[in-house]
Write a structure and sequence with these properties.
mainly alpha, 195 residues, globular, disordered N terminus
Length: 195
């Protein structure tokens, strides 16, 4: 019988999935007291003994939810726990506060760090590749819709982040809409629409 800390996940996922995530987190971090909870964004808190999975996955089917939440645990339990220097991250975040576009700087960092950690996860544990591929299919489908909304609202920094994500994962966010996507960026980036 599982005896552990109750979390917000109990409302959105069944206890079997929660137990799987906790067991996975404990095995990957080698911390027998590691807990898994839900948060707005996935993250790792070593001092608190906590891996948070993103609420983004809550409303997906059980198969998709499982893949998404497991990928969060892999990124935090393998990647963040062993391969992220918290002091370096904090120094960068302090630097970002002085940037012209601090939220964009933070978001670009988070995107690049996630990609770096994913490569480490895939190399250290090749079996994670299937879960990450599933994660990218879900994100790409969601981001295609979000990209249209950001472009319609002239939210170019958000649109640029989604395009960068698509470029990183080969998600094809720009396919079929090349001209419509490049037009707004021409004002900010010379030759953005050039072939």
């Amino acid at each position: 019988m599982f005896v552990g800390k109750l979390s917000l996940l109990d409302d959105k996922i069944d206890s079997m999935l929660h137990m799987q995530l906790v067991d996975l987190a404990r095995m990957l971090t080698r911390n027998k007291k590691m807990e898994v909870e839900a948060a707005f964004h996935a993250h790792y808190e070593e001092a608190a003994g906590l891996i948070a999975v993103s609420q983004f996955w809550w409303d997906y089917s059980l198969l998709d939810k499982t893949a998404g939440m497991k990928s969060d645990v892999y990124l935090r339990g393998i990647g963040s726990a062993w391969y992220t220097d918290a002091a370096a991250v904090n120094a960068y975040l302090l630097f970002c506060q002085t940037a012209v576009l601090p939220k964009l700087a933070n978001s670009l960092f988070a995107l690049c760090e996630e990609r770096r950690l994913e490569r480490i996860c895939r190399k250290r544990r090749p079996g994670t590749s299937r879960v990450f591929a599933h994660r990218h299919r879900l994100y790409t489908a969601f981001f295609k819709h979000k990209l249209r909304a950001h472009l319609t609202k002239n939210e170019f920094a958000d649109a640029a982040l989604l395009l960068i994500y698509g470029w990183f994962v080969g998600g094809g966010l720009e396919r079929g809409r090349k001209e419509n996507i490049h037009i707004p960026f021409r004002r900010f980036i010379p030759n953005a629409g050039a072939n």
